[in-house]
Amino acid sequence: MKKIFLLLSLLLMTFSLTACNAQVEPTQDNTTANTNVKTTTETTSSSTSAQTKIIKLTTTNNQTIEIELNNSPAANDLYNQLPLSIDLEDYSTNEKIFYPPNKLNTESTPKATPKIGTLAYYEPWGDVVIFYDDFHANNDLYELGHVISGEDIVSELSGIVTIETMPNQ
């Protein structure tokens, strides 16, 4: 019995070492294919990140604000849900909020910095916030972008608002 066990152990060890020693030599075709894939991926990534995403919020009485989104996963999730018709609500004394239909992915999304005109996502409640006055930093607030046009009327916005993408300039 010991001889069989010893023989099986030796065979297993031999096959294991042989498998570890096997190396695939790169061929010219494999190297070229890998280089092409890498170049294509890099080009696509850089063109996507260089693309500025601007959204426009329009009220029923034609008041508009424009917001430039950052390139975070959460901002991209919001952008991909547009166009939307939402109910913009007052909350507290410094912000307007709305609820997108789907939760946003906050992985790798920066925390919101306290600044008037910030568009942020409050993860625990799943609402998007537009700040029109000072606010305090919060670990559950993720920055999506900032108002680039119409910051002075954010406090006046309310009711049904259409949010849509704007063509790249």
What would your notes on this structure say?
The protein contains 3 helices and 8 strands. By secondary structure, the protein is α+β, with helices and mostly antiparallel strands. It has 2 domains: about 1-50, no CATH class; about 55-165, Cyclophilin, CATH 2.40.100. An 8-stranded antiparallel beta barrel has the order 1-2-7-5-6-4-3-8. A hairpin with a 4-residue loop joins strand 5 (about 120) and strand 6 (about 125-130). It is elongated.
> Can you tell me the residue ranges where pLDDT is under 50 for at least 5 consecutive residues?
22-49
Average pLDDT over all residues: 81
Q: Which CATH architecture of the largest domain?
A: Beta Barrel
The sequence of SSEs as H and E is HHEEHEEEEEE
Beta-strand percentage range: 25-35%
Oligomer: single chain
Fraction of residues in H or I helices:
25-40%
User: How many domains, as an integer?
Assistant: 2
Strands of the widest sheet, in order across it, are: 1-2-7-5-6-4-3-8
Distance between the termini: 80 Å
Shape: elongated
CATH fold label of the largest domain: Cyclophilin
Task: From the alpha carbons, calculate the radius of gyration and give it in angstroms.
Answer: 26 Å
Write the layout of secondary structure elements.
Elements: H1 2-21, H2 28-50, E1 53-59, E2 64-69, H3 73-80, E3 84-91, E4 95-98, E5 118-122, E6 127-131, E7 141-149, E8 159-165
Antiparallel strand pairs: 1-2, 1-8, 2-7, 3-4, 3-8, 4-6, 5-6, 5-7
Question: What descriptive keywords fit this protein?
Answer:
eight-stranded antiparallel barrel; Cyclophilin; Cyclophilin-like_dom_sf; Cyclophilin-like domain-containing protein; 30% strand; 169 residues; 2 domains; alpha+beta; elongated
